[in-house]
Write a structure and sequence with these properties.
Nucleotidyltransferase, domain 5; 2 domains; 13 helices; five-stranded mixed β-sheet; alpha/beta; 13% strand
């Protein structure tokens, strides 16, 4: 007979951030990634047996890792381990102090720690600091951007959109739609040099601006195919034009569920009148400040990286032709993005983010 469930593991903000970095680290040993995942699940209140089943270890291993963390903190995740062979020259206490300083403080007059400033403060070598940071996935020199949505309807919109991803309706197509506005047709002031062995390709740091276009795109969640159209401006007239393009492209008899943002153009009275005449269209709005929820944004990022950023476009027509070529090549071999996050898991993460923001503000 099993005993009572273990209480949720208590984590500080810095400890949770360090564990989450470990799970994302590309060069972190697999054992440390498993330990970090176990501890994060334990902090969320998941039972030891459930954790063991999900991670693929024994319940006794889960309990052992929890005890080790309670005794040694993040420093106990295999970074410094006792055993045979050469003894570590850096104590677990020093490792824990480096982690604490990195995640909760900054040096005087600086916005972040460097290897040299941390090494001087703690009394170790810069290479030691770099090794510890690398093992734990700590990158003080980098800063990610984020914003937690303040939409009063956040939960309802989230559940609606995620429900379409995880359980799409029958006899319907789900499209993630958005506009990539003001794409610039940039030409270079001098000819670019090709890549040769021992030297990367080159292009001038300045450019000539030859006009702009707006790409309207709708990504089919099921197949990954994209319906796209370049139009000169970004108004409700162009939006209605693109709705007509979608209407012509989607087979009759299928309902059309569009996931899109809260831009005023999407709610214009003329758009509402058009929708009244086309009953198979249903609009689903993402929460404000939640563009990450719209899968077509990932496709836009790939378009920018693989086609636009290093492209040379003497005219808007050249830009449109290149964009359409990329779109056609993508649709020849489309791959859908697989959405796995549940609404419950996202809401829990957002709740933790808001709690952390409140703690920082106070």
């Amino acid at each position: 007979m099993s005993g009572p469930a273990a209480a949720p593991l208590s984590l500080s903000v810095g400890e949770r951030e360090a564990l989450e970095r470990l799970t994302r680290g590309l060069q972190v040993p697999h054992q440390q990634v498993l330990q970090a995942r176990v501890l994060l699940l334990a902090a969320d209140g998941v039972a030891n047996i459930r954790i063991a089943e999900e991670i693929g270890v024994r319940p006794a291993t889960v309990r052992a890792w929890r005890r080790r963390f309670a005794d040694d903190g993040v420093a106990g995740l295999g970074l410094i381990r006792k055993g045979r062979g050469r003894k570590p020259s850096i104590s677990e206490k020093t490792v824990a102090e480096i982690v604490r300083l990195t995640t909760t403080t900054t040096p005087p007059g600086h916005t972040h720690w460097s290897c040299r400033t941390m090494a001087k403060t703690v009394g170790v070598s810069p290479s030691t600091v770099q090794r510890i940071w690398s093992n734990l996935g700590l990158k003080p020199h980098q800063m990610d951007t984020f914003k937690v949505s303040n939409d009063p309807q956040f939960e309802d919109k989230l559940i609606d959109v995620v429900g379409l991803y995880l359980n799409p309706p029958e006899k319907a197509i789900v499209l993630c739609m958005d506009e990539k506005s003001q794409i610039q047709a940039l030409d270079r002031t001098q000819a670019s040099l090709p890549m040769v062995p021992g030297r990367a390709g080159t292009m001038t740091h300045d450019d000539k601006r030859n006009g702009t276009t707006t790409l309207f795109a709708a990504l089919d969640v099921l197949t990954g195919k994209v319906i796209g159209q370049c139009l000169p401006r970004h108004r409700h007239e162009e939006f209605i034009t693109f709705l007509k393009t979608i209407d012509a492209a989607v087979p009759a008899g299928l309902a059309v569920h569009l996931i899109l943002d809260n831009y005023a153009t999407h709610k214009h009275p003329a758009v509402q009148r058009w929708l009244q005449r086309h009953k198979r269209f249903h609009l689903h709005f993402t929460p404000t400040s939640s563009s990450w929820m719209n899968q077509v944004e990932r496709w836009f990022r790939e378009l920018t990286d693989k086609n636009i950023r290093r492209g040379v476009f003497p005219s808007v027509g050249d830009l449109i032709a290149s964009t359409e070529e990329y779109l056609n090549a993508h649709n020849d071999n489309p791959k859908p993005y697989v959405w796995t996050a549940t609404a419950e898991s996202i809401l829990a993460k957002v709740a933790r983010a808001r709690e952390t923001l409140e703690q920082v503000a106070n």
